[in-house]
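Structure in, sequence out. Go:
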């Protein structure tokens, strides 16, 4: 995850001993002026800190992960300039242990969906196998490719038969964003349990096929369970460090703003567009489908419903229409648990991010409704969203997706 750590302790990480975050704090910094924001950015980049969130407007906080040896200095440096700093997570390792170490693996792999906890990859795939066995007429699984480490990148097709227009959903392209992977499992559960029982789901499946990629980056996901809970990229070996940010590897202004050509960066775009198995898998599956109507890529965190573009401040030709449908989704989402979302184009609402899947899908695969969704929360827990929030997060997101589909 962190450049400093990887460079200094690269040898340790080769032996795959778990990365620990004892004493690491997630601090929220609130610069009030442009000048203060620049000071914060300078400290973050020169101290090689790991920034978890970005502010589009001064006054909004940014979340920064600070190692114990720098916590005091960080707070003093900003305190002297009267820039407010508050603690969001007091000890990152404690939260990680609650989620990873305490996850009691049952002796037999689960075969049913469970939204009370996060699950390891083999558990997720076992649950999928169980569902296919339970709903053979509705579910089928196909492989979209194999990762560098030889893991299957699976797609679940939910179809009542024939060939209908497709809704595509992928989850977990960024390994540490566990709520994304968990939310895809909830969608599959809703679709299978709901067909014939829930009128909304039945109508949806009478009109559309769903293709859902529940874990787009399996190598990275396994690594977050075994070695580094905060790992983002895939696990290909580069010369100095591991991993490519798969959401910088698509052919949408590849290598442009918001991506890095440093293999040790969390935003490393890779050697060339589509150099990675994971982005190839998404491209290949989508290109194989004749009529994809909507694309959703689930991320965390920030509570945003994003449209293209990420690589430019310019707007797609049908922006007004995509924005309208995003608004419908966000209002439906908010109605479920009152969670507040912002929506709009990636470049305006979050930051410039070239090479993302959503932009490639819109520009090249010509899918007219292409959304990147940043799920809960707003940084109270960040990537370490407690398992108690899986169900409410998934419920509200599902409501947003259904409303969006019904609005096109
Ligand atoms: O930087 C990213 O790739 C996304 N943010 S994240 O914190 N999840 O890494 C934002 C990019 C926009 N989202 C999509 N294009 N899906
Ligand atoms: Zn992400």
């Amino acid at each position: 995850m962190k450049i400093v750590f990887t460079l200094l302790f690269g040898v340790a990480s080769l032996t795959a001993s778990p990365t620990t975050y004892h004493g690491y704090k997630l601090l929220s910094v609130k610069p009030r002026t442009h000048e203060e924001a620049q000071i914060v950015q300078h400290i973050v980049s020169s101290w090689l800190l790991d920034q978890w969130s970005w502010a589009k407007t001064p006054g909004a906080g940014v979340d920064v992960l600070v190692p114990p040896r720098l916590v005091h200095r960080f707070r003093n440096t900003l305190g002297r300039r009267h820039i407010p700093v508050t603690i969001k997570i007091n000890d990152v390792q404690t939260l990680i242990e609650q989620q990873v170490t305490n996850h009691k693996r049952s002796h037999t792999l689960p075969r049913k969906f469970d939204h009370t906890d996060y699950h390891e990859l083999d558990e997720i795939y076992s649950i999928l196998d169980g569902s296919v066995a339970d709903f053979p007429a509705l579910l089928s699984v196909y492989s979209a490719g194999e990762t560098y480490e030889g893991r299957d990148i699976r797609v679940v097709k939910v179809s009542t038969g024939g060939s209908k227009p497709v809704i595509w959903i992928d989850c977990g392209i960024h390994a540490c964003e566990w709520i994304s992977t968990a939310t895809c499992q909830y969608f599959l559960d809703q679709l299978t349990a709901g067909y014939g029982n829930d009128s909304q789901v039945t109508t949806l499946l009478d009109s559309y096929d769903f293709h859902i990629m529940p874990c787009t980056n399996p190598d990275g996901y396994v690594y977050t369970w075994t070695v580094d809970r905060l790992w983002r990229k895939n696990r290909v070996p580069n010369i100095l460090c591991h991993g490519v940010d798969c959401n910088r590897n698509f052919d949408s202004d590849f290598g442009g703003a918001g991506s890095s050509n440093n293999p040790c960066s969390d935003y490393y775009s890779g050697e060339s567009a589509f150099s990675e198995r994971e982005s190839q898998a998404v491209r290949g599956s989508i290109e194989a489908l004749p009529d994809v109507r909507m694309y959703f890529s689930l991320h965390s965190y920030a509570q945003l419903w994003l449209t293209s573009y990420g690589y430019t401040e310019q707007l797609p030709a049908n922006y007004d229409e995509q924005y309208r449908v995003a608004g419908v989704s966000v209002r439906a989402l908010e109605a479920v648990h009152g969670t507040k979302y912002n929506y709009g184009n990636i470049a305006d609402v979050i930051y410039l991010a070239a090479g993302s899947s959503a932009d490639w899908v819109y520009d090249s695969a010509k899918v007219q409704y292409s959304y990147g969704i940043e799920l809960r929360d707003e940084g109270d827990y960040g990537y370490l969203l407690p398992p108690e929030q899986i169900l409410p997060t998934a419920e509200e997101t599902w409501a947003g997706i259904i409303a969006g589909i019904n609005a096109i």
